[in-house]
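Note to self: keep these together.
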Amino acid sequence: ASVFAASASMAVSGWTTGCRRAQPPQAHRVKPPIAASASAEAFRANAPSRAPMPTWTPPPVQERVLSNGLRVLFVPRQGPGVAAIEVTVARGASVASPGLASFAAAMLLRGTTQHNADELSESFTRLGVEPTTLANHDAMFTSARFLARDLVAVLELVSEVVRRPAFSRHELELERTRRLTQWKQLRDVPSALMSIQSAAQLFGSGHPYGYIPLGNDGAIRGVDREMLKRFHAEQFAPDITTVCIAGDLAVDDVFVAVEKAFGDWTGHARAVPPLPPAAPKAEHIVLVDRPQATQ
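Structure:
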């Protein structure tokens, strides 16, 4: 009897549960909107008052031109004893064959006539400095951040890099391999392909601005040591160079250190012909089909 009662109870429970489940869903009740409070309405009616515009005073720039024509800019900035330098040579990819200026900029850090690539790297590392070089169409840059107390040592190394690169054949081939790899990688990046095509379409493939500073596969393979040496000799000169320094330094210390590092640099930049006019193509659509591209 107890078993029967339990079974009956379970059956009734299941039946009632099933009945409850079978009931039609209740209509969704939409809550009435909450009335805005008086304070909220007042806030919306009156725009908050505008705070006064903050004033900004640009830092003073100290400028001096050395007797050899080199321009020096210094921006004092009090802080935790750090500083930065950028040396700009006003010659870039637009005055050279495709890829040559960018190749030359990379080779500046691959050894000088005083230190090979490893020695140069170790000299910077001991100072906690990681220099960079870059070339765009209009200029070449050598940059570094350093401790202010190392101003003289850093300037000596940077001057050596800019003025006396060795263009070692061994390092040249290493850099060539790196750049060819970079070129292949760019061919897999849609945005890079777009930049390459945009330059060619807007300026024309024969215009100095018609290619990216890296150049292309053929240009990279064609660079040799004599081309690099000639480009450096013709396009690097003090009268088109600017040394810009900012940091926690005394102005007199900066100018004395720059004079010591760059003051004996001689020579004048060669005049460059004006750029030819751009030769854009008529309006059209360019589709770069890359079926095997990863992106």
